[in-house]
Amino acid sequence: MEYLTPKALTASVVYALLGILILVISFYIFNKLTPGTLRREILEEHNSALAIIAAAFMLAVALIISAAIHG
C-alpha cells in the first residue's frame, strides 16, 4: 500500500490538475488556429468531421501529457 501515501496522492492530484490545465490551454490554441469557432461548427452546424478531429487532437495531447508525467 505504498501508493496510498499522502505524498503520492498529492502528487497525483497536482499532476492531474496540471495535465487538465495544459489540455485546456492547448485546445484553446487549437480553437484559435482553426477558422471559425469549434463550438459553433460542432454544436450548431453539426460538423461531425470537425468533432472527430477535435477529439483526436484532445486524445493526442492527453497521451503526450500522460507520457510526460509518467516518464
Shape: elongated
Could you describe the largest sheet, including whether it forms a barrel?
A: none
Secondary-structure-based class equals: mainly alpha
Q: In angstroms, what is the radius of gyration?
A: 16 Å
Termini gap:
22 Å
How many individual β-strands? 0
User: What's the mean pLDDT score?
Assistant: 85
Contiguous helical run count: 3
The proportion of residues in beta strands is under 5%
Low-pLDDT sequence parts? none
Give the arrangement of secondary structure elements.
Elements (H helix, E strand, L loop, with lengths): L5 H28 L4 H7 L3 H23 L1
Helix pairs in contact: 1-3
Characterize the structure shown:
By secondary structure, the protein is mainly alpha-helical. It has one domain (19-70). It is built from three helices and no strands. It has helices at residues 6-33, 38-44, 48-70. Helix 1 (6-33) runs antiparallel to helix 3. The longest helix is centred in the N-terminal third of the chain and has 28 residues, at 6-33.
Observed structural traits:
71 residues; mainly alpha; 3 helices; elongated
Short description:
Helices cover about 80% and strands about 0% of the residues. It has about 70 residues and is mainly α.
